[in-house]
Amino acid sequence: xxxxDNVSKVYPKQSRPALRDVSLEVERGEFVFLVxxxxxxxxxxxxxxxxxxxxxxxxxxxxxxxxxxxSNWKVPQMRRQLGTVFQDFRLLPNKTVGENVAFAxxxxxxxxxxxxxxVPQVLDLVGLGGKEDRRPGELSGxxxxxxxIARAFVNRPKLLIADEPTGNLDPQTSVGIxxxxxxxxxxxxxxxxxxxxQNIVDQMRKRVIELEKGRLVRDQARGVxxxxx
Amino acid sequence: xxxxxxxxxxxxxxRRNLTMTFAxxxxxxxxxxxxxxxxxxxxxxxxxxxYWYDKVNVSIFLCNxxxxxxxxxxxxxxxxxxxxxxxxxxxKKMSVVDTVAYESSDQAYKHYKEQFGDSxxxxxxxxxxxxxxxxxxxxDPEKYQVIATAFDGRDGxxxxxxxxxxxxxxxxxxxxxxxxxxxxxxxxxxxxxxxxVNTVRVSAFSRRRETGIMRLVGASGFYIQAPFIAEAxxxxxxxxxxxxxxxxxxxxxxxxxxxxxxxKLNLINFIGWDAVLTKLPLILATSLLMPALAAFFALRKYLxx
Lengths: 229, 305
What we know:
The structure holds two protein chains of two kinds.
Chain A: E1 2-9, E2 19-26, E3 31-35, H1 42-49, E4 57-62, E5 65-66, H2 75-79, E6 82-86, H3 97-106, H4 112-125, H5 141-153, E7 159-163, H6 171-186, E8 190-194, H7 198-204, E9 207-212, E10 215-220
Chain B: H1 3-16, H2 18-53, E1 58-62, H3 65-70, H4 81-93, E2 97-103, H5 105-116, H6 120-124, E3 133-138, H7 144-151, E4 157-162, H8 164-206, H9 208-217, H10 221-256, H11 261-264, H12 273-302
Antiparallel strand pairs in B: 1-3, 1-4, 2-3
Domain FtsX extracellular (chain B): 56-160
Main location (chain B): membrane
Transmembrane segments (chain B): 21-41, 179-200, 221-254, 280-299
């Protein structure tokens, strides 16, 4: 699903690389936590998967494609098979919940019939059935994040990238979001989630990848947030 | 691609940027009106050239007895009949010459009398003071110089005169005005383009949330850019329509009605409606494509994949 071979990333005008010789593989259907302090390279890792950046050295394979050799005009096709969720939700405030989810389908040219069918379906899945006509501003943070997840999942991606999806939420709401991501993972979707939330990582007991100053320092199946030194 | 969705996005974009859109429309309208105006001006000059050049001659004036005394060009005396035959024969051999007409001093005297009638100068003239001349019509009026070099300074020839020279001063003036209009047009065009680029950028910036999400869910580059390009093209097309209106109104009021130059200046023949109408598609196409291209290049830096 995702393979990094000796990947390094140096941003222009910066001497210290953001990622340094990282190699790892994520299989289809896995649930992976990506942990590490701020500046450890988590965001760069995710941006490389989304092909928002290209790596400086090594190879990044996503969904069987070598991203270095993927031409610019094919990138959108690749991204249609990925879903993304962010800490700040990134919803459009002047569109309703239903329109926000439908937007992800409209802009890739799905037919109206298809949209009318899949939007209520995915909103039911995330537990927002019947709230289609609300605006994001009328919803709680947890509900907004559910809308964002619905939007990420509506095109049935094979891979879901989540960048600190519970970063803005209280612990109880976070648990709800994690249950939802777990359910999505059980449908066969691979999930890669960057997080700072120790409780969540410790409870879920999934694979944990830890980055420190750009290096891969831990890759542990059924791991916890941090070692007790 | 869903047309309704795209159209509603364009409408939202244009309304959000109403003042900028208005500025784009006005600047495109003005620059293209000037563009069309200068095209029509060239047409007008060409029409006038065609009309007048048909009527102008090159004249070779021959020496008469009184010239032989006063004019250094005629120092060798009045023209002889051999010299006249030689000139006529040479003219017939030249390929640039269309027709040659000989005007005797009696005929010249008669023409002069007709034109100036009872003026005191006319009454003191006698036929033998008038010059004999050849009136030559050229196939290409620009080739005056060929005649001048062949006959100027020849024995028996007083001078070679080109009536076109007088007209050329007028056309020179009109052309100068035309170039001035084009310079203003070029500047307006630069202003229009910069406004378009800026408007598109502001528009893209104010919608960066939407475009950011579009990128993430895998909308194609074209799909993301199309609304912005279409916005610029629509604003440009409205400007082009206004410019076309300007030209039609200008033709109507300056030539036919209002100023009504066609009635006041009978000697000039003016461009017709066909000249105006054939410019309109060109202006509309420019007004559509130019902003669209400007928007495309403005976005290439701004909306990367």
